[in-house]
Amino acid sequence: MWTETNPEADAREAQRIAATAGKELCARLNLDRADALFVMGSGWKEAADSLGETAAELPMTDLPGFVAPSAAGHAGTIRIVVRGDQKLLVFFGRTHLYEGYGPLAVAHGVRTAIAAGAHTVVLSNACGGLNADLPIGEPALIRDHINFTARTPLIGARFVDLTDTYSPRLREAIAAKNPGIGEGVYAGWYGPAFETPAEIEMMHRLGADMVGMSTVLEAIAAREAGAEVVGLSLVTNRAAGLAGKKLSGEEVLEVARNAIPRLRPFLDGVAATVLGESE
Q1: Measured between alpha carbons, how far is residue 119 from residues 144, 229, 234, 235 in Å?
Q2: Are the beta carbons of 93 and 62 closer than 8 angstroms?
Q3: Do the beta carbons of residue 24 and residue 68 sit within 8 Å?
Q4: pLDDT (tens digit, 9 = 90+) per residue, 22-60?
Q5: Kind plus residue range of the DSSP H or E element containing 201
Q6: CA 131, chain centre distance (Å)
Q7: Who has the most CB within 10 Å: 10, 56, 59, 81?
Q8: CA end-to-end span of the chain
Q9: 79 phi, psi to nearest 5 deg
Q10: Measured between alpha carbons, how far is residue 228 from residues 148, 167, 231 in Å?
Q11: Cβ pair 218, 107 in contact under 8 A
């Protein structure tokens, strides 16, 4: 489905499939429209229970254009969560570039949610820390990103301003409710190999504070569609060469599991901010 043989035609088809998937999502889940999207990246799944009451859930692959996530901790389901009179789409998992389906598949979930009405997109992930001021096991806000994947979900003359990719308004509001929360620049890496120490040193010199294998292409697609974006990174380890030990996916998930009690109230507060709930 996700080919790259005719880029312009592929881009038009990707938009058509996302629009179809958005309509079908609303129909399948008896939803008039969504108010926001939360993408639960590695380590964030269990914290999503704090977002609100589950109204319905279905496998991603029941909708056009979705492929089953292959990364550990990505369940591959979509949930509708109700908070007052507002509804959240919660995606448990995402497609990564390293899975081989290309940038259009990576952006498909975000584009589908926006087609279903979501005007705010919250992208969460697990990341390696390059900045010692960002504590292991704690969430941090993404202020900006550097796209080291050399890929984009935009095809053709589709010029999108990324000056304020990650909403300054929402970042400021979230930080006000979470004094001391870290913030930094996220480096998007293709993966699936972890970065080498030399690559980490390069990223750090270029201004990166965190590194991971997701988020940046989804953020670009969301901004193209006019949605506000919030980026949340759970710092699960020191990046390669900074901790004196080898990296592993198991360590990432273990740190994430231990962080769940802290992530639940944090994520609930993020949802309240994004939806403009009164104190």
Answers
A1: 19, 9, 24, 27
A2: no
A3: no
A4: 999 999 988 999 999 999 998 898 899 999 999 999 999
A5: helix 197-205
A6: 21
A7: 81
A8: 46
A9: -125, 145
A10: 22, 6, 10
A11: yes
Matching residue, tokens 């992208």 = 123
Confidence tier at 237 by pLDDT (50, 70, 90): confident
Place of tokens 């403009």: 276
Contact 131, 142 (CB under 8 A): no
Strands (E) located in 109-227: 120-129, 139-147, 182-188, 210-212
Q: Is 52 left (phi over 0), alpha (psi -120 to 50) or beta?
A: left
DSSP state, residue 73: T
pLDDT tens digits, 93-137: 999 999 999 999 999 999 999 999 999 999 999 999 999 999 999
Three-state DSSP state, 265: helix
